[in-house]
From TrEMBL:
<feature type="transmembrane region" description="Helical">
    <location>
        <begin position="164"/>
        <end position="180"/>
    </location>
</feature>
<dbReference type="InterPro" id="IPR023408">
    <property type="entry name" value="MscS_beta-dom_sf"/>
</dbReference>
<keyword id="KW-0812">Transmembrane</keyword>
<feature type="transmembrane region" description="Helical">
    <location>
        <begin position="101"/>
        <end position="119"/>
    </location>
</feature>
<feature type="transmembrane region" description="Helical">
    <location>
        <begin position="73"/>
        <end position="89"/>
    </location>
</feature>
<keyword id="KW-1133">Transmembrane helix</keyword>
<dbReference type="InterPro" id="IPR049278">
    <property type="entry name" value="MS_channel_C"/>
</dbReference>
<feature type="transmembrane region" description="Helical">
    <location>
        <begin position="20"/>
        <end position="40"/>
    </location>
</feature>
<feature type="domain" description="Mechanosensitive ion channel MscS">
    <location>
        <begin position="182"/>
        <end position="250"/>
    </location>
</feature>
<feature type="coiled-coil region">
    <location>
        <begin position="285"/>
        <end position="312"/>
    </location>
</feature>
<dbReference type="Pfam" id="PF21082">
    <property type="entry name" value="MS_channel_3rd"/>
</dbReference>
<dbReference type="InterPro" id="IPR010920">
    <property type="entry name" value="LSM_dom_sf"/>
</dbReference>
<feature type="domain" description="Mechanosensitive ion channel MscS C-terminal">
    <location>
        <begin position="329"/>
        <end position="393"/>
    </location>
</feature>
<keyword id="KW-0175">Coiled coil</keyword>
<feature type="transmembrane region" description="Helical">
    <location>
        <begin position="140"/>
        <end position="158"/>
    </location>
</feature>
<protein>
    <submittedName>
        <fullName>Mechanosensitive ion channel family protein</fullName>
    </submittedName>
</protein>
<dbReference type="InterPro" id="IPR030192">
    <property type="entry name" value="YbdG"/>
</dbReference>
Length: 420
């Protein structure tokens, strides 16, 4: 400043005018220098660093560049230049230094925020991130960093030591706990979810209470985002996964099989013993040929050994159409290319009720894809429903308007309906 004033005085400018002109010239010079430093840093240094990272193909470097960590670092250079010239303005030196320090604190917070985001991005590239997400922990670290940054900024503004503000926080602990209640609950829940491996990113969960039925796309400190099958997004509080029950379909996805558990209801009035003609017909069915022959020989040997009079059909043992049908369905599933043969496969009868005799299929497809699973399940029951009449069985169905209309038409014509 004195050097510039001396130069202006040598040019014949009055002292009072020289002071103002020297101040303006110095401000313009410092401003030009900071602009030049900012330009050099961003346009030259950053380009060199970026090209070096791309050429070396550092995976972590690309994430740092995406989060603009290095770009934010470039804001420090102009601030340091202004700070170094603050002594040239003795009347405003303290104010300038204080402003620069506050600015540097804010820039440091932004840099740390971007760096933590980059760390999370890098971590998500590893497979362990699905079972051990760290986003919630990073958010907790951010909260503490921003709290400390706010304390430092306030202490610089009021000109007091940060320790004075920290001592006052003890009295505000109850208020802080109330404000950050959800964050603290989310932190505790996140630790439990991670340590117990309860959910991972990509898991299919079902939580009817919150209308969630889909894949987890994100696990954060306060919320878990679920993309439902209709492409809507459901947001669930993280601690709700600890306090409430939910269904995780990960076990099904890992096993490689998806369960089919559905029943066909048989009209019990159509169940009966097999006639000789029916047995001969069943012997021509590919899946039943060996079964019917073995079963027929077994029954004949039993009745012969026990000297049973077969002139009455209820005496001794005999094949029934429902038993043969159950054996056929079992063998049909055992030969089905889309049924997982290494997992549970059962065809069983359940307790009969007002809707008939339930014949339940309990099996697993060897493809967990939803569309494939539904197609395989539909194909199986299409076949079962279509083949049931070949065994003399009727699938139960409550009378419909069509049934009533057919009965009335048969009554008018004086002929019984062949279906009844």
């Amino acid at each position: 400043m004195n050097y510039i004033k001396d130069l202006l005085a040598d040019l014949g400018i009055k002292d009072s005018t020289a002071v103002y002109m020297a101040t303006i010239i110095l401000i313009i010079g410092v401003g030009a220098l900071t602009i030049l430093a900012n330009y050099v840093t961003k346009k030259i240094v950053l380009k060199i660093v970026s090209s070096y990272i791309r050429n070396k193909r550092f995976q972590w470097g690309s994430y740092i560049m995406e989060r603009k960590v290095i770009q934010k670092l470039s804001h420090i250079i102009p601030a340091l230049i202004i700070y170094s010239f603050s002594y040239s303005f003795p009347e405003y030196q303290r104010l300038i230094e204080q402003g620069v320090v506050i600015y540097l604190i804010i820039v440091a917070l932004l840099i740390l925020d971007a760096l933590l985001n980059a760390v999370n991005d890098i971590y998500t590239t590893f497979e362990i991130s699905k079972s051990r997400p760290i986003r919630g922990y990073i958010q907790v670290v951010k909260i503490f960093i921003f709290i400390i940054g706010a304390i430092l900024v306030i202490s610089r503004v009021i000109g007091e030591s940060p320790l004075i503000l920290l001592s006052g926080i003890g009295a505000m602990s109850a208020v802080m706990l109330l404000i950050f209640k959800d964050s603290l609950l989310g932190l505790v829940a996140g630790v439990q979810l991670t340590s117990n491996d309860m959910v991972r990113v990509g898991d299919w969960i079902e939580m009817p209470k919150y209308g969630a039925d889909g894949n987890i796309t994100d696990i954060s400190l306060n919320t878990v985002k679920v993309q439902n099958w209709d492409k809507t997004i459901t947001t669930i509080p993280t601690y709700a996964l600890i306090s409430d029950s939910f269904k995780n379909w990960r076990g099904m996805q890992i096993s490689g099989g998806r369960r089919i558990k559905r029943s066909v209801f048989i009209d019990m009035s159509s169940v009966g013993f097999c006639s000789p003609d029916m047995i001969e017909k069943f012997k021509k069915i590919q899946y039943l040929r060996d079964y019917v022959q073995e079963k027929e020989e077994e029954i004949q040997a039993y009745n012969r050994e026990n000297d049973i009079d077969r002139s009455v059909v209820v005496n001794g043992r005999a094949m029934t159409n429902i038993g043969v049908f159950r054996a056929y369905v079992m063998r049909y599933l055992q030969h089905h290319p889309n049924i997982h043969q290494d997992m549970t496969l059962i065809v069983r009868q359940l307790a009969p009720g007002e809707t008939g005799l339930p014949l339940e299929i309990y099996a697993f497809t060897n493809d967990i894809d939803w569309s494939v699973y539904e197609r395989v399940q539909s194909d199986i029951f299409d076949h079962i429903l279509a083949v049931a009449p070949e065994f003399g069985l009727r699938v139960f169905q409550n009378p419909s308007g069509y049934d009533m209309k057919s009965m009335l038409r048969a009554e008018v014509n004086g002929q019984p309906d062949s279906r009844y």
